[in-house]
Amino acid sequence: MITEKETTKEMVRTYLVTGGAGFIGSNYIHYMFRKYGDQIRIINVDALTYAGNPENLKEVEERENYTFIKADICDKDAIRAIFQQNEIDRVVHFAAESHVDRSIRNPEVFVQTNVYGTAVMLNCAKEAWEQPDGSFAEGKKFLHVSTDEVYGSLEEDGGYFYETTPYAPHSPYSASKASSDFLVKSYIDTYHFPANITNCSNNYGPYQFPEKLIPLMINNALQGKSLPVYGDGKNVRDWLYVDDHAKAIDLVQEKGRLGETYNIGGHNEKQNIEIIHTIIETLLEMLPKEDERRKLVSKDLITYVEDRKGHDRRYAIAPDKIRAEIGWEPETMFKDGIKKTIAWYFAHEQWMENVTSGDYQKYYEEMYKGN
Ligand code: NAD
Ligand code: TYD
């Protein structure tokens, strides 16, 4: 006889989230607990590389329906054991090396984590979910979180990335993400593996590691450090507030057609230099009159530096398919999102201090050589 407790337990869906201690993964976990509360269980598997910060999940770590496992997605035995020991219903695969500049300096780890690690995740999920007749158990779903950078670069004056746009990655980062997307597609085509791929534009928001444009500029400006602009500063990115991405991922898993790819972006194209000016203006608007840092924040900090090698000129997503099929729309206007982001960094000075010490600092010195 099934007890009431067991029935309730059965209804609790278990998510295996990889890379949940990173920027988007931690925001996604917070979003999911806000939305579903105790109706879900999340197991977060993260190797805690330089980009993984358990502090990002401080507020959820005491929850009974949250488990953290420190493991490398390339460690087949560790990942297989997680699937054997838990009835996993959903995989949401974020874990990756994610920074283009690092990929230019050290491509191998990108191939290892992003390509091989994805192969391990796919294979372990397939092993756990495949039934004797080759079909997959009802309700099992794998979502691979990818990037618009797989599509390459657009001309300044036109065009958008659609799901049908041919892949043309340029950096080792985007090439490794493209390879991982193809692996997922191959599992869908070969085994009818129950997966989706999402290709999203640039995210911004709380918990973003300050090697990426927006938190780097906020952090430097507040310390009166130079603001390094690559090339002419006119490269365009399509910025999306991270909660809107988290919502889209959840909706794709709930309502998306299995096997499909969905582009996620918000028609919010901006040149890098425009972003930097907005950050300076917003900081000056938000800093209290008596705050000493007001004296440090200035447009004079803007410093044009050598361009990134192979720097993609423009990214822009056409989110038509996800809007039409799933009803997702970005909700956060950039002017509001940037304020929320800056307010978060104001309230989390200690977080910033912690992540900008140690290894990150060494990397930073090497990268900018005293700029
Ligand atoms: P991030 O670098 O902030 O976090 C990556 C996380 O993965 C970290 O917690 C890290 O410890 C973990 N990780 C790295 N290697 C691992 C390994 N071998 N095993 C287990 N864990 C490992 O990255 P992010 O910005 O949060 O991006 C998450 C995902 O979203 C990535 O797949 C990225 O390609 C994709 N994406 C990012 C953006 C963006 O703007 N940041 C946009 C579109 C897609
Ligand atoms: P980044 O945040 O690294 O994201 P991605 O390369 O994945 O788009 O960079 C966003 C844009 O900002 C990109 O065009 C490079 C540029 N950039 C700078 O000009 N200066 C910087 O210090 C950084 C980190 C990026």
Beta-strand proportion? 15-25%
Q: Approximately how much helix is present in the residues?
A: 40-55%
Task: Round the Cα radius of gyration to an integer and report it.
Answer: 21 Å
Mean pLDDT across every amino acid position: 94
Question: What class would the helix/strand composition place it in?
Answer: alpha/beta
Tell me the major beta sheet.
7 strands, parallel
Helix count equals: 13
The CATH topology of the domain at 13-204 and 240-268 and 311-333, please? Answer: Rossmann fold
What binds here, in terms of ligands, is:
nicotinamide-adenine-dinucleotide, thymidine-5'-diphosphate
The helix/strand order is HEHEEHEHHEHEEHEEEHEEHEHHHH
Distance between the amino and carboxyl termini: 69 Å
* Main sheet: strand order: 3-2-1-4-5-6-11
CATH class of the domain at 13-204 and 240-268 and 311-333: Alpha Beta
Q: Regions with pLDDT < 50 over 5+ consecutive residues?
A: 1-9
Q: What is the overall shape?
A: globular
CATH superfamily heading of the domain at 13-204 and 240-268 and 311-333: NAD(P)-binding Rossmann-like Domain
Keywords: Lyase, NAD
Organism: Eubacterium plexicaudatum ASF492
Pfam families: GDP_Man_Dehyd (PF16363)
Family: Belongs to the NAD(P)-dependent epimerase/dehydratase family. dTDP-glucose dehydratase subfamily.
Short description:
Residues 16-341 form the NAD(P)-binding domain. The chain is an alpha/beta fold and 371 residues long. The chain is built from 13 helices and 13 strands.
